[in-house]
């Protein structure tokens, strides 16, 4: 049994451009990126409310499976627990706060960098590879995947339990996701 996938990205074209749209406010434009830190287990509810209000957002979701007795249940859970990323103006920020589902709202100082990082995370999720959430990153070798479904993704090589993994991270959160990768598929940056 699977819990249905909910919208986690609005608009659907948010990461389709190769240039950074919406990331840097133009003069007179009050729109910027915000990291909405939600109350416990409120990420999807915040995303639904932002979708209903037509506010641009991204909630990275990954598929998780668990056994309950003899039944396997699949659901989609937030990759970054407690965070929804919103692009909007001050009025939309206030609207998000009015949901009473947020603990705090963090303004992102480098919207272009956040957009780039989130775009890579979204691409990594889209490959369908099993991901592991990572936090408090340590420096390592920066690489770019040179072939396969993840071609073009940049990240850091880490070693975990004898596996070589590609770590793609969101600098602003100091968190990321890793996927097992053959080191022959990557090239140093």
Alpha carbon gyration radius: 17 Å
Major sheet: 6 strands, antiparallel
Spans of at least 5 consecutive residues with low confidence = none
Q: Order of helices and strands, N to C?
A: EEHEEEEHEHEEEEEE
Kindly, what is the distance between the CA atoms of the first and last residues, rounded to a whole number of angstroms? 42 Å
Q: Tell me the strand percentage band.
A: 35-45%
Strand order of the largest sheet: 8-12-11-10-9-13
Q: Which structural class should the secondary elements be placed in? A: alpha+beta
Q: Describe the global form.
A: globular
* Overall mean pLDDT: 88
Quick overview:
This protein has about 190 residues and is an alpha+beta fold. The protein has 3 helices and 13 strands, in the order ββαββββαβαββββββ. The model has no long low-confidence stretch (mean pLDDT about 90).
Could you characterize what this model shows?
The protein is of the alpha+beta class and 189 residues long. It is built from three helices and 13 strands. A six-stranded antiparallel β-sheet has the order 8-12-11-10-9-13, with helices on one face. Strands 1-3-6-2-7 form a five-stranded antiparallel β-sheet, with helices on both faces. Strand 9 and strand 10 form a beta hairpin. The longest helix has 16 residues. It is globular and about 50 Å long.
């Amino acid at each position: 049994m699977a819990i249905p996938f909910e919208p986690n990205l609005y608009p659907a074209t948010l990461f389709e451009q190769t240039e950074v749209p919406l990331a840097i406010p133009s003069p007179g434009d009050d729109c910027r990126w915000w990291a909405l830190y939600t109350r416990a287990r409120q990420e999807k509810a915040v995303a639904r409310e932002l979708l209903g209000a037509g506010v641009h957002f991204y909630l990275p979701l990954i598929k998780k499976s668990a056994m309950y007795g003899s039944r396997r249940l699949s659901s989609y859970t937030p990759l970054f627990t407690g965070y929804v990323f919103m692009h909007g103006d001050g009025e939309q920020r206030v609207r998000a706060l009015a949901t009473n589902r947020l603990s705090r709202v963090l303004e992102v100082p480098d919207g272009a960098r956040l957009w780039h990082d989130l775009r890579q995370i979204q691409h990594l999720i889209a490959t369908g590879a099993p991901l592991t959430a990572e936090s408090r990153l340590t420096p390592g070798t920066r690489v770019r995947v040179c072939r396969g479904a993840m071609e073009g993704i940049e990240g850091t090589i880490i070693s975990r339990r004898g596996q070589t993994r590609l770590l793609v991270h969101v600098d602003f959160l100091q968190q990321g996701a890793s996927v097992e990768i053959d080191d022959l598929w990557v090239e140093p940056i």
